[in-house]
Recover the amino acids of this structure.
């Protein structure tokens, strides 16, 4: 497996490192802090010890005075240990805790703010194509996603299947987050149709035959498990009436592909288009976070139907980006960008498509998707990346 320095700035203080399972958190901390005390709470024996006797942590640190870095993997398994960590940090200013987690649900209940000011929050995402460099395959990314565990598997389809089952069994069922696992499984299928689309909770509720409040709870579970996210509509100084609902995405396009039911009446090009937009979304989201959250990610859609898939707004300026799963550029593909440009003349407009040529049409830069993704570097702004 290839791992690069995914956290571009060195971290001297204690920190939380959140990210979905399989994104390489454990491997990264082992490689980055090879001389640390490493506590793996996924190990059943170690988990039982610390859930029963959290004070074991104090004894371990006292027995290894030369160790200043303590890694606790999957901290959400024993959230009550946070109080002890807080005390240890107060007692010993030289200690540094690296706390990884794939779920924020239990930590929210345990009040992560106990460590406020002493531990920063960082995130790890599926690969950015730049990290893979010559190993990046657009087709593979669109079919199986960019989760390191799955991307480098010899049997990615089977690994992806096991990965989804693991989340349902270990994170949802084992932690009793839902009582009706079959209903939750139906919900996962139903909400997959909303991937890269405006989320209509009532419609999802009808599809999976559960109450609206239940669907809202299921959506919160996905978010807490870092399996999904939403982006809001860009409405700053809006000149037109805009939609109000958010767009929904699974955190990785491979997860979407697996969960999305396929049948003879399904339009393959629609699914491929959703997958491509989702891939761009997850890469933009990671780029924004790794860059230090200098920008925010939105979409833009008017009530009359004009839309732009993504709007990036912040210190790097204003960029409108449209994604098309086509190797040709049709004139009407540019309509939404042109409308946005008329409302926001300062905006840089970009069309990402499946073709091979980099073109400029009516002041809109049209760039092949592979080139766009491979140039997406956290140390550069969007326009700097593709210039």
């Amino acid at each position: 497996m290839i791992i690069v320095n995914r956290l571009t700035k060195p971290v001297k203080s204690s920190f939380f490192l959140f990210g979905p399972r399989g994104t390489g958190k454990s491997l990264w901390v082992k490689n980055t802090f090879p001389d640390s005390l490493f506590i793996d709470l996924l190990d059943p024996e170690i988990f039982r010890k610390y859930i029963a006797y959290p004070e074991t942590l104090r004894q371990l640190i006292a027995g290894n005075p030369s160790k200043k870095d303590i890694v606790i993997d999957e901290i959400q398994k024993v959230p009550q240990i946070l109080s002890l960590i807080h005390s240890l940090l107060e007692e010993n200013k030289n200690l540094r805790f690296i706390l990884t987690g794939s779920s924020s649900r239990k930590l929210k209940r345990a009040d992560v703010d106990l460590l406020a000011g002493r531990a920063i929050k960082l995130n790890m995402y599926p690969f950015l194509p730049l990290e893979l460099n010559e190993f990046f395959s657009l087709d593979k990314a669109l079919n199986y996603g960019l989760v390191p565990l799955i991307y480098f598997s010899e049997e990615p389809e089977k690994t992806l299947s096991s990965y989804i089952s693991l989340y349902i069994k270990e994170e949802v069922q084992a932690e009793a987050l839902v009582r009706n696992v079959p209903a939750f499984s139906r919900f996962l299928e139903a909400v997959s149709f909303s991937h890269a689309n405006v989320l209509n909770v009532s419609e999802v509720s009808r599809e999976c035959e559960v109450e609206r409040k239940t669907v809202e709870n299921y959506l919160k579970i996905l978010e807490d498990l870092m399996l999904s996210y939403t982006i809001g509509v860009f409405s700053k100084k809006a000149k037109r009436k805009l939609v109000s609902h958010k767009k929904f995405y699974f955190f990785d396009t491979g997860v979407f592909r697996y969960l999305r039911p396929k049948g003879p009446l399904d339009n393959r090009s629609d699914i491929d288009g959703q997958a491509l937009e989702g891939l761009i979304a997850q890469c933009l989201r990671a780029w924004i976070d790794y860059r230090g959250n200098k920008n925010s990610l939105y979409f833009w859609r008017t009530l009359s139907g004009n839309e732009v898939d993504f709007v990036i707004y912040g210190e790097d300026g204003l960029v409108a980006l449209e994604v098309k799963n086509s190797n040709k550029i049709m004139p009407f593909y540019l309509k939404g960008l042109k409308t946005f440009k008329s409302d926001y003349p300062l905006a840089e407009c970009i069309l990402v498509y499946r073709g091979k040529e980099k073109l400029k049409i009516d002041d809109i830069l049209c760039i092949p998707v592979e080139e766009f993704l491979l140039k997406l570097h956290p140390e550069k702004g969007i326009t700097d990346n593709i210039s």
In short: The radius of gyration is 22 Å. The chain is about 40% helix and 20% strand.
